Structure formats: C-alpha cells, structure tokens
Amino acid sequence: MKKLGIFCLLVTCIGLQSCKNDKSEKTLQVKEVKDATSTECYRAIYEQDTLNLKLLTFKDGEVNGNMEMAIANMPKKVGEIVGEFKGDTLFASYTFIQGSNKEKTFKNPMAFLKRGDQLILGNGQIQLTMGASHFVKGEPIDFDKVKYKFSPVDCVEKQ
Predict the structure, then answer these.
(1) Who's near 99: CB < 8 A, 6+ residues apart?
(2) Residue 111 belongs to what H/E stretch?
(3) For residue 100, how many other CB atoms are within 10 A of its CB?
(4) Residue 46 needs a FRET pair 20 to 30 A away by CA distance; which of 10, 121, 127, 145 works?
(5) Residue 49: what pLDDT?
(6) Has residue 151 got a pLDDT over 80?
(7) Considering the entire predicted model, what is its pTM?
(8) Is 51 exposed, middle or buried (0-12, 13-18, 19+ CB in 10 A)?
(9) Whole-angstrom distance, CA of residue 80 vs CA of residue 31
C-alpha cells in the first residue's frame, strides 16, 4: 500500500513537471517581426512621465511589443508586452527590468482600452496569487481617471 502511494505521488510529480515544461516552451517561442500583420507605435506623456509603446499584431490575434516607461524620480522600466485584444481592450503582461539591474525582472498585468486612435492604460485592482500578479476577477478596470493616454506616433527604429 505504501509503495502504491509513492508511485502515485511520483506519477503526479512527473505529470506536473511535463505541464510546466510545455508552458515554458510556449512562452519561449518568439514571433518574427516580418510575420506581424500591423505595427503601431504610441506615446503617452503625463507631467514629467513619458511612456513609449510599440505593438506588433499577428494573424492569430496575439499582440507583442515593447514599452519603455520613464517616470519622474524612478528608474527607467524597459520590457516586453505580450497579450491579446478582447473586444476593444488589450489585456497584456508586461515583463520588464528596472534601471540598471538586469538580473531581476518584474511582471505586471496591464489593460489598454482602444478608444478612437488612442490606447488608454487602465487602473485595476491587482492581486498576487502563487507569485503571479493579475487583475482581480469581477473588479472593474477604470479607464476614465487615468494618467496615461497613448497617442499614435511614427515608429522609429533605434540605431
């Protein structure tokens, strides 16, 4: 009986590990810029803060890109956005480094409402579950009382 319990525990651990590996491989697949159906660049300026956003949209509806956040009195945040539109709202995950510390990465959920030609960064209640942050289910995301409204700009490639 004891051997059966250990065997079941071992099979469960192997199953969970294989699920974890599939998820990490899926995350590591990088989409090529040439495969994007559209490329859009945006900038939001609020007081002394400047946020630059570049989004690539793919046939399958996935959106990838990058964002730089230069917020007054804080180290610059530079990272990648990955998400998808649900209706007129882009739900994304922002993975970034802060300042010169390239060793530690952070990950935050974000929601952008497409209103006209603008993207509005929403404010929502975020909770931490098992080390991952996400918006609280059932709590509204505010797109009216916000700091950052992104307007379209020409995309400029960095040299």
Answers:
(1) 75, 76
(2) strand 101-115
(3) 8
(4) 127
(5) 94
(6) yes
(7) 0.74
(8) buried
(9) 13
Q: What angle do CA 127, 130, 136 make, to 5 degrees?
A: 25
* Tokens 């009986």 -> residue: 1
Quote the DSSP letter at residue 145.
Answer: S
CA distance 64 to 44: 18
d(CA 134, CA 28): 20
Measured in whole angstroms, how far is the alpha carbon of residue 17 from the centre of its chain? 24
Amino acid letter for position 68: E
Of 145, 87, 155, residue with least CA distance to 120: 145
Q: Which two tokens stand for residue 94?
A: 């922002």
Residue 18 — left, alpha, or beta (φ > 0 → left; ψ -120 to 50 → alpha)?
alpha
Question: Residue 62 half-sphere exposure, CB side, CA atoms within 13 Å?
Answer: 14
Of 107, 119, 108, residue with least CA distance to 146: 119
Q: Which two tokens stand for residue 54?
A: 């570049």
Instruction: Decide if pLDDT at 6 tops 70.
Output: no
> What residues contact 76, with CB distance under 8 A and at least 6 apart?
68, 69, 70, 98, 99
